[in-house]
Design brief:
251 residues; Nitrilase/N-carbamoyl-D-aminoacid amidohydrolase; 7-stranded mixed sheet; 6-stranded mixed sheet; 24% helix; hydrolase; C-N_Hydrolase_sf; N-carbamoylputrescine amidase activity
């Protein structure tokens, strides 16, 4: 399985422009035969808690139909982050698009202290299956909750995918923790992070991929948008892992 992580710099509150930039990276991942591409936490809006009332939407938003078309035609799983609304309030969520299947909303259950002011605790979705793999997901602070990764392991996951916003001050601590999850549970583990300024945070990049022994296979830099792709079936993952930078000339 080829897993792709995307590192992005969201434009504050501009869902349509962020959609366009997401699609550029998705196309690049498809050109390199990725089976899944996952974006960072709140990648379609940026981490902008004061704007969530106006930005929150649902998985059925018509603006997202293009992602489903791409998923269906190219047989790729796509996961991106945004605030979603339900009958209780607004959640920090990831929308998952699978080829010719209904969309899934994975919502952050364990909120970071302070997020309760703007968001409500959501519902995690169980791992999804791709061929012989089981993929479990996490959104940022959830990786710091031992019960979360333990539950993923007990549910049979062999791949753990973290969609995060990590700041310059906190990223190395989180990298150590997530690599520890990979080693402890022998799960291939990835982390997709933002770069640039988002909300009050200076985002650190360093989106990373670890093998199921907890060894770092690939890490993006701390400033550029781009992707990294890891082939879980490769006998020589260092040669089978590729990275690309995205150049934007219109921002």
């Amino acid at each position: 399985m080829k897993i792709c992580i995307a590192q992005t710099k969201p434009i504050k509150g501009d869902i349509q422009k962020n959609i366009e930039n997401h699609i550029k990276l998705i196309v690049l991942s498809i050109q390199n035969s990725a089976d899944i591409i996952v974006f960072p936490e709140l990648s379609l809006t940026g981490y902008e808690p004061e704007l969530v009332e106006e930005l929150a939407t649902t998985e059925n938003d018509k603006r997202f139909d293009e992602f489903q078309k791409i998923s269906d035609s190219s047989k790729i799983i796509i996961g991106f982050g945004l605030p979603t609304k339900n009958e209780v309030g607004i959640c920090i969520s990831m929308i998952l698009f699978q080829p010719n299947k209904p969309r899934i909303t994975y919502s952050k259950e364990y909120l970071h202290p302070g997020e309760e002011k703007y968001f409500v605790s959501g519902k995690n979705s169980p791992p999804i299956t791709f061929e012989s793999n089981k993929l479990a997901f996490a959104i940022c602070y959830e990786t710091s909750i031992p019960e979360h990764s333990e539950k993923a392991f007990k549910n049979g996951a062999n791949i753990y995918i973290a969609s995060v916003l990590n700041s310059i001050n906190g990223v190395d601590k989180d990298i150590n923790r997530i690599s520890g999850i990979a080693k402890k549970y022998q799960m291939t583990t990835v982390m997709a992070n933002l770069v640039g300024k988002s909300g009050e945070y200076d985002c650190a990049g360093k989106s990373s991929i670890w093998n199921n022994k907890g060894l770092l296979i690939r890490q993006l830099d701390n400033t550029n948008e781009g992707i990294a792709i890891f082939d879980t079936e490769s006998d020589n993952p260092e040669k089978k892992t590729v990275t690309y930078k995205l150049n934007r000339n219109n921002d």
